[in-house]
Amino acid sequence: MRSYGWSDTGCVRPTNEDRILVDDGLGLYIVADGMGGHTHGEIAAQLAIETIQAYIQSSRNLQEITWPFGYDFKRSPNENRLSTAIRLASRRVFDRAAQVPELDGMGTTVAAVLLDSNIATIASVGDSRVYLYSGGRLEALTRDDTWVGAMVRQGTLRESDVPKHPMRNVLTQAAGVRQTIEVQILERRLSAGDEILLTSDGLHGVVGDDFLRSVLHDRPDPEAAVKRLVEHARDEGGPDNVSCILIRSGA
């Protein structure tokens, strides 16, 4: 298993409110795209990453785990761990914003992957994404928690209309903006050579699927692929912070 991650300010924003985590020891990878203006977004993203990492670290011994939101017996232990970690992160961000008036309204997206042998547990809140590249096919494993995403799924908006829609960046949920959130969670078994890509919308909102697919096909080294993707997002104007992590399975 090889991995590489990079977060770039882009060409327009004065600061980077994205945060990433690449923790090969835990098998934990996170992209968090903070929001809230000024430095508030980066505070939310950093709080979320720290909380998720701490819970995944402390819950490695299944006999000593506490489940503050209960346990879903329809889900695997790792699905429960990652979902709980993100919900804890959301609560921490929400509580911090409630305690500090100038942080009111801050929040963050979360796209996270927890690897255990050849099983990937994938979770998300917001519009940061997780993709699987396998056998030449690129598949989005998460759905965007956005207004336009909901309209497309309901059949009231065409996918082709999304890039130019005035509400394309309106989130329907994000970590920390309300007391409860619904975490998307799933598991996939990986084969040798499969690649998992985590991105903020500063990348996937600018770089099309065809280009993503071609870079993943042509560059098997995660570092080379990530650098090319970020470079291309900047070449396209880099209107937002750009973050991505690529993991190549050796399963």
Question: What topology does this entry show?
Answer:
Layout: E1 2-8, E2 18-23, E3 28-35, H1 40-58, H2 77-99, E4 107-108, E5 110-116, E6 119-125, E7 129-134, E8 137-140, H3 147-154, E9 184-189, E10 195-199, H4 201-204, H5 209-218, H6 222-235, E11 242-248
Antiparallel strand pairs: 1-11, 2-3, 3-4, 3-5, 5-6, 6-9, 7-8, 7-10, 10-11
Helix pairs in contact: 1-2, 5-6
Walkthrough of the structure:
The chain is of the alpha+beta class and 251 residues long. Strands 2, 3, 4, 5, 6 and 9 form a six-stranded antiparallel sheet that branches. Strands 1-11-10-7-8 form a five-stranded antiparallel sheet. The chain is 31% helix and 26% strand. Helix 1 runs antiparallel to helix 2 and helix 5 packs antiparallel against helix 6. Strand 7 and strand 8 form a beta hairpin. The protein has a single domain, classed as PPM-type phosphatase domain (Phosphatase 2c, domain 1), CATH 3.60.40. It is globular.
